[in-house]
Amino acid sequence: MPHVIRYFDKADESYAGKLELADIPLNKLQELFHTPPEDPMYECFPIHETQAKFFYEFAKIKLDIESYDYFLEYDA
């Protein structure tokens, strides 16, 4: 499933970019965001410090939580 991380500048809420998550299995994302196994995760999920640590440890994606708001989204 094509999940992505979209992020927005906290200073002015402008769109800042998108990160592809091709290598992270759906079941890992479901565990991280505490969703049931049958949930395809089509909704938008805000990413906080705990989730940011996971993305760095699992995929070496470093998120700047101080400067940007991040959201996990399904990119159809």
Automatic annotation (TrEMBL):
InterPro entries: DUF7683. It holds the Pfam family DUF7683. It comes from the Bacteria. This is DUF7683 domain-containing protein. Residues 4-73 form the DUF7683 domain. It comes from Denitrobaculum tricleocarpae.
